[in-house]
Amino acid sequence: MSPKDITRRRLMEIGIKVMGGFISATSAFPIIGFITAPSLKQEEDKWIDVGAINDFPPGTYIKGVMESQVKDGWYITKERALCWIKVDGDKIVAVSATCSHLGCNVYWDEASKNFKCPCHAGVYDSEGKVIKGPPPRALDRLQVKVEGERILVNSIPVPYGEGKNV
Amino acid sequence: MENIKKTEEKEGTTFYPSHLFKEMVVMMFVFVLVSFILALVFPVKLGDPADPTDSSFVPKPEWYFLAIFQLLKYFPGVFEAIAAVGVPVGSIILLMLLPLIDKNPERRPRKRPIAMALMVIILAVTAILTLLGAVT
Amino acid sequence: MFRKVYYWIDERLNIRPYIRKEILDKPVHGRLNFTYCFGGMTFFLFLLLTITGVSMAIYYVPSPDHAYDTVDYLTYQIFMGKVIRGVHHWAANLMVVTVFLHMLRVYIHGAYKKPRELNWITGVMLFVLVLSFSFTGYLLPWDQKAYWATKVGTQMPGSVPLIGDYVVRVLRGGSKIGALTLSRFYVLHVIFLPSMIAALLIGHFAMIRRQGIAEPL
Ligand code: HEM
Ligand code: FES
């Protein structure tokens, strides 16, 4: 091969790498973006009606079912989630039922006055603070407001000790 | 490649029909076991529809994930990542690197006491965790 | 009949010598005991899973509104539904057993050592794929077990600082288990993982052919 052929060969080799690299790199970006895009969407907060004040006998935690219309990707549906509500005179507390460990729903155990998680035996006190088990932090709180006779809770939970209950 | 050449010379039969016959016998066994015994005697069930507002359902993973399920209970709070991600990802990486770590050419189990002891310990720990996960 | 077709093709492509040499007459050890069968069993179970899985996909609809109902329909109202779904279920469970025993055999025989390192590494990838199959398949019926196991399972990477939360969101296609999670898992389960496993199996088998089975001890 003459030196000219060798440079020609080199040139083509470099060309193959450059073009291959260009095609892979430029297609990777839109594809990865396309696959992960909906994951990044922030949820908008909204107020959800969980029932009338009279539905919640005061002094203890009662199950509150939060049912709301949501757009889950392309799909408009009723989303249902669970929280625990305690009416105590003027003060209304709403505790998110989502365990801070891996997200199972906790239940209120009236006998021991604790929240318990069925999944990995996490136990919280009546404030939602961790007593036992794997959960890393207290149960989240939901902001509450009262409109007329109805109790509304906010769909975005706030960590324990932050935010205020209306 | 030396030992491969030697192996080939010693190999006794051919793939077709003798080895394929053996494989077929085994497949027949698996087929009968799965389709006629397991699938008919222990039919699969469909549980209740998913309900995000339920607070009593205890999700137990399939039996082969029970060991890790049990392990989660021992790593509270900030250490959770160790059990949830560290152990599984670490073991997979170690397994992948095994042939690069263990370069001892000896193949007979009797002559590889460390490898065999490790295997027995890991199997025992996994078995115990699985059992604990199943009963609790 | 079969022979005639075979000869007809061979006349044009001359594949007979190749098939003889590379497949049919390939020498194999005469003294392989039953522990050498776990790989083949795993492969056979993979075939069973493919056939039953494709059949169920004909009826299944991966949406929160329909998943449960279509599984219910294909199991209880279609001829042989219970059997097809049962075989898929049991074959999946058994595959975890056989792939594990296969790996154990390879480990005990030291068959991962030089020159078979690459095949072991391919094998570990296959093992991860088998487990991913069962994890993604678990959600599809959209019953209680499916929903809660997936909720807990996808939350696990969330414990890692910094990137954990992002990983969870990408797995779920959002912050919650919903329509987007279901369609992701469905595609992983029926398209992505099967093609990955098929590609790796071709490599696995090609390497075994090239290197032969490690000499029995
Ligand atoms: C989908 C899963 C898999 C299938 C279908 C499969 C299939 C097979 C088959 C049919 C053989 C021939 C010998 C035998 O059956 O024992 C084999 C050999 C082998 N497999 Fe797999 N395998 C799988 C997963 C794995 C895994 C998880 C590993 C280890 C991490 C592995 C490592 C090996 C090695 C190193 C050999 C060569 C063994 C020898 O030369 O003695 N394979 N595989
Ligand atoms: S999810 Fe509640 S303790 Fe693990």
Description:
The complex is a heterotrimer of chains A (166), B (136) and C (217). Chain A is α+β, with helices and mostly antiparallel strands and 166 residues long. Chain A has one helix at 3-36; strands at residues 47-52, 61-72, 75-88, 91-96, 107-109, 114-116, 123-124, 130-132, 141-142, 144-147, 150-154. In chain A, the strands form three sheets. Chain A has a four-stranded antiparallel beta sheet with strand order 2-3-4-9, with no helix packed on it. In chain A, strands 5-6-7-8 form a four-stranded antiparallel beta sheet, with no helix packed on it. Chain A has a three-stranded antiparallel beta sheet with strand order 1-11-10, with no helix packed on it. In chain A, a hairpin with a 2-residue loop joins strand 2 (61-72) and strand 3. Chain A is elongated, with a radius of gyration of 27 Å. Chain C is mainly α. Chain C has one domain (40-211): Up-down Bundle (Cytochrome Bc1 Complex, Chain C). Chain C has helices spanning 2-13, 16-24, 38-57, 67-76, 81-108, 117-139, 144-155, 164-172, 179-211; one strand at residues 27-28. The radius of gyration of chain C is 21 Å and the shape is globular. Chain C starts with a helix and ends in a 6-residue tail after the last helix. Chains in contact: A-B, A-C, B-C. The interface between B and C is large, with 69 and 80 residues. Protoporphyrin IX containing FE (HEM) binds at residues 36, 38-40, 42-43, 46, 99, 102-103, 106, 109, 111-112, 116, 119-120, 123-124, 126-127, 130, 201, 204, 208, 213-214 of chain C. FE2/S2 (inorganic) cluster is lined by residues 99, 101-104, 117, 119-120, 122, 133-135 of chain A.
List keywords for this structure.
heterotrimer; A: 166 residues; alpha+beta; Rieske Iron-sulfur Protein; 2 domains; 1 helix; 20% helix; C: 217 residues; mainly alpha; Cytochrome Bc1 Complex, Chain C; 9 helices; 72% helix; 1% strand; binds FE2/S2 (inorganic) cluster
